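User: Okay, second chain of the day. Same drill as before: sequence in, structure tokens out.
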Amino acid sequence: MKVISIILIVIGAIGLLLSTMMFGDIGLAAGIASITAILSGVNFLNLNKKISTN
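Assistant: Same drill. Structure tokens below.
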């Protein structure tokens, strides 16, 4: 689960950088998707910490 969270954070960061080069609605959609990937990765990382401590 830790690997999945790291991959999501990295892909989200790359997508956020690439979304700044896009125009119009496509750039906005790519930005929203990359922020969603970053938040999912962070939450997977938090969940992994909670599971591993128990």
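The chain has two helices and no strands.

User: Thanks, on to the next one.
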